[in-house]
Design brief:
This protein is α/β, with parallel strands linked by helices and 404 residues long. The protein folds into two domains: 135 residues, Aspartate Aminotransferase, domain 1 (Alpha-Beta Complex), CATH 3.90.1150.10; 254 residues, Type I PLP-dependent aspartate aminotransferase-like (Major domain) (Aspartate Aminotransferase, domain 2). It is built from 14 helices and 17 strands. The strands form five sheets. Strands 4-10-9-8-7-5-6 form a seven-stranded mixed β-sheet, sandwiched between helices. Helix 5 links the parallel strand 5 and strand 6. It starts with a helix and ends with a helix. The mean pLDDT is 98. The structure holds 4'-deoxy-4'-aminopyridoxal-5'-phosphate.
């Protein structure tokens, strides 16, 4: 049963007022709110369990380690990875992408080699490659898209040559909501003998992800976009690749033995986890995953799909509306502009009505260039949003339009 009122009670922040108006929180692609169970789990750990993890002989350390390693198993199950040694905890999607960009480029790429990304990438899947390009002279190739926000797979297929070493694309665009055909993208890469990484920041909160089914070589996502705490994320990588890549950072936890002459590294996944991990956040993330699983990720998908379709319909009917990202089956993100009202003006005036939306380039400036705009207004949904909230948004937009 998907009881939306009961779900909303799990998120006390949703009943607060802003400017004497009920909050309508539609900025979930930036970060989601946290249910009480996640906050309770983290508070309980700090109150009663807290101790540094791994190698501690004492009771608390072992208990904290158990929670941390159980969280790894929960993540493994959530994305259906074959093994917990392939689950690396990071600070978030951005760190996962930087880790692979740095380690993969160092080991697997030389000057003139190429990585393929898409035109709709978040800056976090562009800039790490540019940093490597500056260091090592690798090149970045870009998959184009059509007017609706659909990637051009025919063009993509033509981009491979003997220099292509990796493909790295978003599962879901954080601006357009396009769900990219990642299984097909990975298959095409593999047909050319090239591994592929998927940025799952905007997919894991919304629908079932199975990394074995996608067959991707790397997959990254963030906890805070799926009801978990900030500062924790995951990199999944196939063991065959992670074994080949050098560590990203050095320090405690990631070594087997150290001398000034020679250091050997820990086995996976610890080789990529230097320093004290955020073991309270991993427990928080696991609690968020169990919260999602309890409600049912397929129920969440259905609800959010309904919201997205309803929102597109309501907004389409507004005079002067321009919607960006109109591919069928798009995910819980709606980007728009109305007439010549600046996105910042629209966002600011909606805010005064209690509606939290995001405005600007959404960390996807190359996509804005492709669309020929400076930015958009973006409404993005989570499991706790309602059709009534979308009515508030649509009515709010109409009010702003009348003011101009
Ligand atoms: N990729 C995509 C598609 C995103 O939407 C985001 C967050 N907006 C990121 C990467 C970066 O995620 P984080 O800031 O949590 O590292």
């Amino acid at each position: 049963m998907f009881d939306i009122q009961k779900i909303r009670e799990d998120f006390p922040i949703l009943s607060r007022m802003v400017y004497n108006k009920p909050l309508v929180y539609l900025d979930n692609a930036a970060t989601t709110q946290k249910p009480l169970c996640v906050l309770d789990a983290m508070r309980e750990e700090y109150l009663n369990v807290n101790a540094n993890v791994h190698r501690g002989v004492h009771y608390l350390s072992q208990q904290a380690t158990d929670l941390h390693e159980e969280a790894r198993e929960t993540v493994r199950r959530f994305i259906n990875a074959p093994s917990t040694s392939e689950i690396i905890f990071t600070r978030g999607t951005t760190e996962g992408l930087n880790l692979v960009a740095a380690s993969f480029t160092e080991e697997m790429m030389k000057e003139g080699d190429e990585v393929i990304v898409s035109v709709m990438e978040h800056h976090s899947n562009i800039v790490p490659w540019q940093l490597q390009a500056a260091k090592k002279g690798i090149a970045i190739r870009v998959i184009p898209m059509d007017e609706t926000g659909k990637l051009d797979i025919k063009e993509y297929e033509k981009m491979f040559n003997e220099h292509t070493k990796l493909v790295s694309v978003a599962h879901v665009s954080n601006v357009l909501g396009t769900v990219n055909p990642v299984k097909q993208i990975v298959k095409i890469a593999h047909d050319h003998g090239v591994p592929a990484m998927i940025d799952g920041a905007q997919s894991t909160p919304h629908f079932r992800v199975d990394v074995q089914d996608i067959d991707c070589d790397f997959f990254v996502f963030s906890g805070h976009k799926m009801y978990g705490p900030t500062g924790i994320g995951v990199l999944y990588g196939k063991e065959q690749w992670l074994d080949k890549l050098p560590p990203y950072q050095g320090g405690g936890e990631m070594i087997e033995s150290v001398s000034f002459e020679k250091t050997t590294f820990e086995r996976l996944p610890f080789k990529f986890e230097a320093g004290t991990p955020d073991y309270v956040a991993t427990h928080g993330l696991a609690t968020a995953i169990k919260y999602i699983e309890n409600i049912g990720i397929d129920n969440i998908s259905r609800h959010e799909q309904e919201l997205t379709e309803y929102c597109m319909k309501r907004l389409e009917a507004i005079d002067g509306m321009r919607l960006f990202g109109t591919v069928k089956g798009k995910d819980a993100v709606v980007s728009f502009l109305v007439g010549n009202i600046h996105h910042l003006d629209m966002g600011t005036l909606l805010d005064r009505l209690g509606i939290a939306v995001r405005t600007g380039h959404h960390c996807a400036q190359p996509l804005m260039d492709r669309l020929g705009i400076q930015g958009t207004v973006r409404a993005s949904f989570a499991l706790y949003n309602t059709k009534e909230e979308i009515d508030v948004l649509a009515n709010g937009i109409e009010r702003v339009v009348k003011m101009f």
